[in-house]
Amino acid sequence: xxxxxxxxxxxxxxxxxxxxxxxxxxxxxxxxxxxxxxxxxxxxxxxxxxxxxxxxxxxxxxxxxxxxxxxxxxxxxxxxxxxxxxxxxxxxxxxxxxxxxxxxxxxxxxxxxxxxxxxxxxxxxxxxxxxxxxxxxxxxxxxxxxxxxxxxxxxxxxxxxxxxxxxxxxxxxxxxxxxxxxxxxxxxxxxxxxxxxxxxxxxxxxxxxxxxxxxxxxxxxxxxxxxxxxxxxxxxxxxxxxxxxxxxxxxxxxxxxxxxxxxxxxxxxxxxxxxxxxxxxxxxxxxxxx
Length: 290
Hints:
The protein is mostly helical. The chain has helices at about 10-35, 40-60, 65-75, 80-100, 110-145, 155-180, 185-205, 210-215, 220-245, 255-290.
């Protein structure tokens, strides 16, 4: 018989956090594969994604792991979970075939890029379904007696203040990146910004953290929060690609500076929407107190 420890809050939070982090890494590799314009880059990205998928799928299907917890909590979804596990096999086989064809004597890059796009579409759909089931898992645990997310004014004010401080730090790095006058300075700052962003996004998406609290307080903004979460994937992939292109044997500095400006504009729009949503629970709380 499976242990009920599979369902405790800490275990579920850890599993969900690990799933998000692994999916974030897979999304970075998928973006790298999708943007590959030459055969060596495509083959390298496909092989790295293949290895990451093998590890990720083994981790999810480990006895007592994420999929076992879902089966234990949602026996009514066993067929859906069985299909997701079969998709693990199908996705692994598909990326292996892509690697094999990219290694042929006379590979056709346009056909391979089309095949890569189809594979990435299937992978993203698979991950979306996984997250939807995991979200139901999280909600069912709350209904079963977990403590609700903190809704008091002090907790919300602290979370919003911390968000502003982290955004201030990101803004400083973004200014340094935009002001970089040579390639070494651009690459160094882009790498610092990439690492800071990864930690910032993980903190915001932490189970029981800012995004969970906002979704709990503002269910009407669930779509916007889902888009912000997708923005995290897109921004992480964009800054990673920027770092990779800055390391190319013959990087074009003017082109990189243009990419930097586009990236920073997207980052600022993302942060603006976050602040607009994060302020709303505080305003509601203030209205109730008045």
